From TrEMBL:
The protein's name: RpiR family transcriptional regulator
Coiled-coil positions: none
A GO term, aspect molecular function: DNA binding
Domain HTH rpiR-type: 1-75
Species for this entry: Ligilactobacillus salitolerans
The gene coding this protein: rpiR
Pfam family, one: SIS
Keyword tags: DNA-binding, Transcription, Transcription regulation
Gene3D superfamilies recorded: Glucose-6-phosphate isomerase like protein, domain 1, Winged helix-like DNA-binding domain superfamily/Winged helix DNA-binding domain
Amino acid sequence: MAFFGFKDFDRLSEVDLDIYRFMTANVETVPYLRVRDIAQEAHVSNSSVMRFIHKLGYNSFPEFKLSFQTEHQTVQANNHQLGFITADNFPPDIYAKLELVADRLQQADSIIYCGMGSSAALAEYAARQTAAVGFNSFCVKDPFYPLVTQLKNTSNNLLVTFTVSGKTTELIEMLNNFVTNEDVTLVAVTADPTSPVALMSRYVLSYSTEQKRVEKYYDLTTQVPAMYLIEQLLSFARRLALAN
C-alpha cells in the first residue's frame, strides 16, 4: 500500500490517471485537501477519487492522507541524504599509500603543509592537527614564502602539498626548488594523480571528485575527500608512534 511506489498502472482507468497526475504534481498540498477539492482540481467526481484511493489499497481518505504525507517526507529525506564520500572516491591502494606516508611523517624532523585558496585552509588544519599530536609541523599558505631559506641546513623534511588540480603554477614553481633535494620528501594530495604536482612528488595521495568552478576563477570543489585523507594519515601516524 503506497502512492509514490505504485507501479500497477494497468489497473488504473483514464479517470484514475487524471487523479494520479494531479496528486504527483501537487505533492505539497494534497495532504491538506479534501476529497471534493481533489475532485474539483482533477475535474472528476468525489466518488472517482474514493475509488482511486481504494484501488491503491487504502480503506479511507484520512488513512490515505496520513500515508501520503509520511511517504513524501521519507522520499524527501532519501533525496537529501548526506553522502559526501565513498570508497569510489579513492584508488584501491589508498590505505597502503597512507601507511607509507604515515611512516615517513612519523620519522620526519619537520612536516610542512602547503596549499593555496581553499587548499590553504586544509593545509592549516593539517598542520595544527599534526602539531597537536606531537609532531613538528607548520603551514605555508604563500607560495612565495622563502621556504628554501628556512629549510637550508636542515634535513629529513616532509613537504605535503594540497591541490585539487595539481596544476597551479605558483605551487609548481615552489616545489621545483625541492624536486632534487634529498632532504625534502614531496607528498601530493590531489584529485589528479597525473598532474605536474603529482608527478613531481614521491608519494601521491589521490582522490576523485567532480571539480566545480564558478565564473572560471572561484573553485567550489568539495574538500571532503582531502579532509578524510588528513584524518586517516594522522590516525595511522599516531598508531605508528604508539607502537614505537
